[in-house]
Amino acid sequence: MFRHLSEVHGWFAERGRAQRHVVTLTRLDRLDGWSFDPVTHDLRHSSGRFFTVEGLGVETDHREVGSWQQPIIVQPESGILGILVKEFGGVPHFLLQAKMEPGNINLLQLSPTVQATRSNFTRVHRGGSVPYLDHFLAPRRGRVVFDSLQSEQGSWFLGKRNRNMIVETTEDIPLRDDFCWLTLEQIGGLLREDNLVNMDTRTVLSGLPGAYGGRFGPEGAEDRGLHRMAELLSWFTEERVTRRLERRRLPLSEVAGWSVGGGRVEHEEGLYFSVVGVDVEAEGREVSRWSQPMLAPASRGVVAFLTRAVDGVPHVLAQARTEAGSRDVLELGPTVQCAPENHRRLPAGRRPRFLDDVLHAPPSRVTLDVVHSEEGGRFHHAENRYMAVEAEDVPLDPGDGFVWMTPEQLGALIRHGGQVNVEARNLLTCLRYLR
User: Fold this and answer.
1) In angstroms, what CA-CA distances link 253 with 44, 45, 85, 266?
2) Tens of pLDDT along 265-275?
3) Domain for residue 288, yes or no?
4) pTM reported for the whole predicted model
5) What's 237's domain CATH number?
6) Closest C-alpha among 360, 372, 381, 377 to residue 431
7) What confidence tens digit (pLDDT) does each residue in 414-427 have?
């Protein structure tokens, strides 16, 4: 067990020195095991598993632009993101691992106990087994604390979900290399560090019941806010049934505004993202060498909640947000979720609402400002600036797809699954546990 964060940093640095990782950018047409379909130019693996990169046409009535086409990752299988929790001296500790992902800007970050796609844990790659996986597969030992199917990035995945789990155990757990037990207080301290606690750890912890701690109220506090939970659910349902989202899958070769060459796939104006190839050498993984495509954003994003107190109760401003890959038209997202560079040419009236309120807020109103990576298994050097900004001047009825709700209400919706997007889940974890 670690007593001080300096010990965690020392252990983490030692694990980095103990592992050898090399990631090399490579042309897509030279990736081992991957190829462009000769007719559609869709990018796929020779096994027919893992994922494909295809084209998607989108039409919707609640975005800055009403229609567009783009490449998108199609990965129909669901993986497992699981964290083991065990009490030591009456204090819950969470089992995390120092895990390399090829897309991480610093390669090594703190991931959940288990972070594996179905192709990984069924060993399509013919590699080693996933440590601690048996604690999360039925029939499992231990008490399930949280278990829910949650969405991944709707801008880049088509309907992708992962199973988020927290399982409490009383067994003696052999501690493998690269794994450590951390308290919520220690994790909260590490959340202050840029690019250290990975996206999958943050999304799993967003579903942790309030009884385990955090900065917001206890379980059963969901109706303490401006709106009762029943009212919020009715508002959310109304948004879902009245919005329009129409999609059609396209051959990658037919996606307008994008170039599909042998080396990479990219937007004609250099915006949004590119699809690039990487060759990977990694110790401490189930497979020590592989190649894959990755999605590489063109610029850093901003993920932010405006916050205010209503009758002394903290609230966040959530939006009903539609993405290209949304499974059910929309999910609840943060107040602001975008890469500002992608909107620089739009007139002020068509820029994302509240973006300027966040970017130009005086420092005295910014209560959270930290950079975190997105999923390093599919995205190359994808970072978002996670922020919380006090905004007492925003009306209680913000209209146009936005609603004030308490963090407890948002947390309750997370535990039901399919309601809150991954960006809002990650940001809520920072608000709950960051010290």
Assistant:
1) 14, 17, 47, 12
2) 999 999 999 99
3) no
4) 0.94
5) 3.90.79.40
6) 372
7) 999 999 999 999 99
